[in-house]
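Before a colleague's protein record goes any further, I have to sign it off. I want your independent view on whether this chain really folds as the tokens say. The record follows directly below this note.
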Amino acid sequence: MRAIQASVLPNSRRTLYNPLKSTYRTYANGAPAQRGYRASAKLFADAANEETELAEQAARANKLEALRSKHENWTGDESMQDAVLRMLVDKYKPMRGGPIRTADEKLKKAPPRVEPVDPAVLHSYGSPEASEQAVVQTSWGASSNRSLADVPLLPAVEGHQPWHTTFTIPSHARSSVKYGNIPSSSATSRLPPNPELLDEKARRKLRENKKRTEQAGRLQSARESTLDYRLGIKAGAKVAHDSVRPRANPTGMKGWASLVEDRIERARQEGRFDKIEGRGQPLKQFVEERNPFIGREEFLLNRLVQRQGAAPPWVDIQQELESALKSFRDVLRQSWTRRAIRMLTLEQPASLLSNITVEKILTFRDTEWEARERAYHSAALEEVNSLVRKFNGMAPYAVRRGHYALEVELERIYKDSAEDILSGIAERVRAGTAGRRRSSRAAWDDENRGSAQSAGDTSWSPMRLRDFLRDWLASFMKR
């Protein structure tokens, strides 16, 4: 009842709520009263802050999702595009422009310059209040009260990648590199310590160092003696030379360079370079040297390996396989040639031997010889196939070979030995014609003598009874 009366009476107090400013204002007789806070104002403020945070989180999530879709995470497998690019960069490395300089030369030419920063600025940036909240001034002039972790140091550039960035020395930088003059080891003289003033441990260490130095001197002397022996220097000249000039023992690169130059000059004066192979002739050029797909180092290594006669293990096995296969085929060819000449001579009459052609020899087969020699041929071919298996286990896939079959090798021999068989038969015919001019008794004596000496003599031709009767009848008709 009182609240209704207070709202009606003009002189009573009225309380108004402003939701935008989250405060209550009390008016008495039209004048504002003191400002006060309520729980509802705190709830409204928390709700507004929560809505702002939710909006920022949604925007941040959308940004992260866009970055994930643009740059995929590493899955453990290299993509095809990256692999091709890596191989191209490894094969054709980018050319560098300008002279090649060391890091010291670059520092001496353009030393970095570092200037001290104002202590007041350092103190202001080092304070906790400045790290918690700082006013960030961007490159386009806008400022905002935000954390430094959420603000990029540089403005984003479209199409820019991290490897495109080049470090530039700041203008306020000063050089902090100091150069020292370190004396060389030769300038500081080291006197040997007095053994009497040392303890037992130091004396033992001194004896070990002395022994190690003597052993190194003996190794150096043995190495020099080996080099002198290879160069053809006699012992007398070596002793005379050592007595006149002490042996050099350089300790630095300059000392070694001087020693090498001295040796080269002495060899030139003695005339050891006058008989060098290829002296005064143009250098040999190789086709591989101009191949753009073979690097200079790879070409030199390949040439060095070829000159030394070195080869991979499968190449040695390949040479052994070729030698074994050639020997097997030669033995098989010689055996079949002798057998075919003997059988054709016995089966055909002497008058028809001169009319034998290559086509007839190609069709000739001897099953008895194949059956008798099959065991030997199979054993020999098995040795060749074992080398083939050994070769295939070491060789690359592109040069591997298949096993050899006996039937295929026999057909090859029948085809390749036809000309040799024809030549052997022609020689037999000429030898038989000359032998028939002798008397029958002398012919039989020669036959018996030849069979007793060598049963496999290819120059001896047996005379059959019908051949003897034919020759005897021909000689009788001539009378």
Notes: Residues 4 and 12 are 11 Å apart (CA to CA). The longest strand covers residues 13-18.
